Amino acid sequence: MKKVKIALFAVVALSILAFAFGCFNIAEVQTLTFNQTPAATYYIGQQVNAGDFELEVKFTDNKTSKITPLSAGVTVTGLVDGKLDTATAGIKTVTVTYRSVSVSHQYEVLSYVSKVSFDDEGKINITTNGTVTLKWAKPGVSEANAETIENGDTPEVGIGNELSNITNTLYVSAGGTVESIPVLTPWKLNTAVVEVTEEEAVVETAQELAWVAAQVNSGVSISKITLTKNIDLLGAEWTPIGGDNAYTGDFDGGNKKINNLSILDGRTINYRDKATTEYYNAAKDLGLFGTVKGGTYKNVNFENVRINAVYTNAVETQKEHGKNLGSLIGYSLTSIITVENVTVDNAVLKGNGRVGGVVGYFNANGSIMQNVTVTNSEFYAHNQFTDISVATSSYDTGEGDKVGGAVGQAAVVSIINSKIKDVVASGTRDIGGVVGFISVNATGAYLKANQVTDTVVNVTAQGVFAPTKGTANAGGIVGTVNGIGKLYFGEDTDKNVVTNTVTFPQAAAGDLSNGQIVGGRRGAGIVTFYSGTTSVDDVNLTFPLADGSGMTVFKAQQTAALVTLHAGLDIGTTYTA
Predict the structure, then answer these.
(1) Does domain 2-110 have CATH number 3.90.226.10?
(2) Do the Cβ atoms of 233 and 277 come closer than 8 Å?
């Protein structure tokens, strides 16, 4: 029996060998080459089956056979699930080995987008390969909620704490695949150095303007800043030009546009660490320029300004925080400045006091503002105080006061030919269509040829403020007139005009006053109003101390020609002065 089994095994073995000889060449492999070579380039996500490529095997006995990378006995590196690796862009290699002989093929996987850049106005430039669909997402936005864009659009970018390292995502759809490309917003604060000739900086890009701000704030003297191109700040966190080191030069915007100026917008402001009593983010003096001292600022147009410096947990020692907000200038110090030919459109500024469409605090007697236009904007001041004892003991802290379409608070200045349209100015007191609070003296302040149209000047019921601060005034041109002296209005073609504008107080209690032209006044004594050079007797506000507080308040003694007590005005009427 054993001999029979051995014989049977031998027959089977011989049969297998015979089959092997018939199917495979047992000679050594001499060469291995691709008959059908993979392409030199593919796109990300493109599906390429390795079994579609044929190789020729040449043996040492000159015989040949055909195999594929997926044939039996073949080993391959560089495949993913039997396909070429196209998951990511770059140079890739596939290597096929058969009987110790190998052949390799190198190919490049291309992105459907080969280049992404931004121009100096924030428009995106995308070089694409083939027909694609583009979607854009700033940080935190998913692909499902991404915005469809086209080449040349100005996409909304992510906001960082500084002008650098803001990574967005560009989603590229093509051929049934979606590629995600990280895109760094082009902010490099210290890389776009501006050539300064005789202390003048000529600025063409947002990066250059940020560099100039850093130089001024570090104490470098620059006598003039000139814009030569439109600039888009892209909503990134802006550091104003001039802080502890005030800017002392001139600024000429060249009639160019500055888009998307943003300071603290949408970000949490933590002013006090209760455990250590340390203070952070002393947000004040905010605008394109923070603090300035002297100079002329002219010929610039702002669109889409967002400044938010509202805080609610300050204490008395945090003086001035949340105050002095303006699109152009937060705070002008006590050297005369001139502001002219400025427009502001679609601005939203929120603070705790001295909030103006163009300048927050215009604090130098003799300064001039002329030919400014503010449209489609909202300006708010929030009162942090709920305890009357704290409010009474405070000084220079934010009480939600002094808001104006052009200027929050002004010294003895001239404001001429401003146009305010479709604006909301709102706060606790001293709210004006043009200027919230203006001072007078014997020389006199000037308000001429200003126009306020389709605007709401509103006193709101929020918090408390010291009774010595006077009435909660709202006026079509000026909220509160402060001091003793002269205020010159226009005559003939220089008259101020208020049209289709509502001035009304909504406070629940306290002394309230609102007016067609002037809301009210602060302080004892006489303010004389002039039309041109002629004193207008019937609008002299010469009121006694009515409440014994040392402040004059508007009650029955006020003159109806300029001031209407406790009443909303007829919005269909035009008032002039």
Answers:
(1) no
(2) no
Amino acid identity at 381: A
Q: How far is CA 489 from the centre of its chain?
A: 37
> Containing H/E element for 117?
strand 113-118
Torsions phi, psi of 96, nearest 5?
A: -110, 130
Cα(577)–Cα(491) distance, integer angstroms: 7
511, 571 Cβ separation under 8 angstroms: no
Contacts with 139 (C-beta within 8 Å, 6 or more apart), sequence order: 158, 166, 167, 168
DSSP 3-state of 6: helix
* 2-110 shares its CATH topology with 113-184: yes
**CA angle, 419 then 423 then 426, to 5°:** 125
Residue-wise pLDDT for 20-70, tens only, equals 443 455 788 999 999 988 899 888 888 899 999 999 999 999 999 999 999
Lowest mean pLDDT across 6-20, 404-418, 486-500: 6-20
Mean pLDDT of the chain: 76
Per-residue DSSP letters for 343-393? EEEEEEEEESEEEESSEEEE-STT-EEEEEEEEEEEEEE-B----HHHHHH
Quote the tokens at residue 152: 């040349």
Look up the CATH architecture of domain 261-576: 3 Solenoid (2.160)
The answer to whether domain 113-184 has CATH 2.60.40 is yes
Task: Give the residue extent of every domain in the chain.
Answer: 2-110, 113-184, 261-576
User: pTM score, two decimals?
Assistant: 0.63
